Amino acid sequence: MATVTVRDVVKKYGELKVIHGINLSIAEGSFVVLLGPSGCGKSTLLRMIAGLEPISEGDVLIGDRVVNDVHPKDRNIAMVFQNYALYAHMTVRENMSFALDLRKAPKDEIERKIAWAASILNLEPYLDRYPKQLSGGQRQRVAMGRAIVRNPEVFLFDEPLSNLDAKLRVQMRTEIKELHQRLKTTTIYVTHDQIEAMTMADKIVIMRNGYIEQAGSPLEVYDNPDNLFVAEFIGSPSMNLIEGRVEGGRFVSKGGTAIALPAGCKAGEGQAVVLGIRPEHTHPDPAGALEARVGVVEPTGPETHIYFELDGRDICAVTRERTGVKPGDPIRLRLDADRIHLFDQASGKAIR
Amino acid sequence: MTQGTAVIATGRAGVTRMPRWLTSEHPFPWLAPLAAMLAVFGLYPLIYAFVLSFQQRNRIKRVDEFVGLKNWIQLVNDDRVWNALSVTLTYAFVAIVIELALGLLIALLLDQDRKGYGLMRALMTLPLVVPPAVTGMMFLLLEDGSFGWLSQNLYMTGLLSPEHPILATGSTALMGVLLADIWQWTPFMVLIMMAGLRSLPKEPYEAAAIDGANAFQTFRRLTLPMLSRVMAVAVLIRGVDLFRIFDYIYVMTSGGPGTATESLSAYAGRIFMTGNFPYAATLSLMTMIVVIIIANLFVRLFKVRF
Ligand SMILES: Nc1ncnc2c1ncn2[C@@H]1O[C@H](COP(=O)(O)OP(=O)(O)OP(=O)(O)O)[C@@H](O)[C@H]1O
Ligand SMILES: [Mg+2]
Fold this sequence. Notes:
The complex is a heterodimer.
Chain A: E1 4-13, E2 16-26, E3 31-35, H1 42-50, E4 57-62, E5 65-66, E6 77-80, H2 92-102, H3 107-120, H4 136-148, E7 154-158, H5 166-183, E8 186-191, H6 194-200, E9 203-208, E10 211-216, H7 218-223, H8 228-233, E11 240-247, E12 250-253, E13 258-260, E14 272-277, E15 282-284, E16 290-299, E17 304-310, E18 313-319, E19 330-335, E20 341-344
Chain B: H1 2-17, H2 27-52, E1 55-58, E2 63-66, H3 70-76, H4 79-110, H5 117-124, H6 132-142, H7 149-157, H8 170-198, H9 203-211, H10 215-243, H11 247-252, H12 264-273, H13 277-302
Antiparallel strand pairs in B: 1-2
The complex binds adenosine-5'-triphosphate (ATP) and magnesium ion (MG).
């Protein structure tokens, strides 16, 4: 167990800068998820922490030690690679015992750990197979197994569940979480699946184009997004966004729809803003102030997503009731005023 | 105009009249030239040698007569054949082990993208373009008992004494010849090993680094096993080649002193020179059979796949 600190870290490939001075501190024993769209630099950051990529500028610390020039083997970390990186000439068992063998761990301990990992990962029938005889998901589980049999100071996971089927993914998510609660090993987990991020993380770090957009607990970033990118990226269906400006203490959309703003709102008069409201805070209500026409209705079972158009934008409302509305029906909507987010249109920053 | 059309029409008709196995869709026309070459230069001599091995020259009638297994029985009872076999095996084994080890070592050292390494890799291949006979002459001069540069240096270190020149002493002559072979053929191993190293995936190395493997462990547990296929193929190619070793021996020692460096090919060549073609053919066939057996054992043992 150890803290991990990333201080002003920059990564350049030649002239190309892909990480632009990132600061991040990860508490001992916490579970941090790096979340962001493809190509935003999640893997690069993780590989720098692992010591597989040289750091162009800044420092990475594990515990109190600056590890910039420490070889990966001396960092006491375990990692699951995005592309598995299995040893093709070793069986599943040998793949998993490799690190323990190197440290000359006692035979019975190796046996026990492999049996334990194999049972968690449903790998028992495959222990004597070679990686090329396994499916993608099975290989991914071997890669997981190889990491969890170790007892490292830091776990690094690079999209470890991306190749599993939906059921196994949910199951593994719970297993990883349980494992973390039991071992309390500092974990950095990369994913672009926000459900994974929300359910597993103590702290979510949202990245875009080599910058950190926001870092905080799952509910913090969900309830109080710092900017438009985070607001739109987190949540499914994503937050409804309506462009307009502030006039006389109210929000007026481009199409002229007026929405009352909560008291104490810091937006200046006449400021061009974007109003954000989550679908679950948008309710069909006969007494509502907004009027719209129903577009698409998507029942998911527990809840129903109702899409409608407002000022040329698709807006979504989520309801748990059986409203029975049909496409084309006129509908009235009510917004939870205290759940309204305002963002500056020019900078995208939240106005609080 | 009409004429032109007519020509095309007959041309088409000609094509359709050709039997299918003569058209380009059939493998036969593609394989025929090579098959013909193989038949003339490979198969025919082989069958000829096989027939010859059951004959003997009648000096009075001046014709080859069928004598059954006589040559083969003589071969088995010929001590010089057994000596040649042991020389050949020793030579091949030592050459392969040293060339493989050196080749791998040099390939590992050269497999870096530092400045100047490209040039070094190119220079490394130079010995391969020297004709073997020239290499033989070169080492003959280097190892010459009185003025050879190598010999003199060895005399100075005391490893060798002038009374026992390398190539004229039974116990060291084979090693003297091997030096030429190693100098010439290690680069071949380097090339193959380098190609093999380049083709290895880099991800397992990253995983091994994180799993805590040091440089030596990484080499032993990743590089060696991942390279073993390539190494087996290299050993096979080189091994078959080494079994026919003739040129360096012919140039440097002619099989001497005594029969200390007489390989199977060298002995066969010597018999051939004396005009006993049937016996030379028998010996060559035996060499071939031994090569086939050993190569097959090797392929089975190391599960070589091409
Ligand atoms: N060797 C390289 N040379 C140049 N650019 C690179 C190199 N490796 C990665 N990049 C760039 O760095 C950026 C970040 O890549 P990275 O692999 O970290 O993305 P990621 O967030 O892990 O994406 P994904 O979710 O698709 O895995 C990308 O824009 C990529 O094109
Ligand atoms: Mg990635």
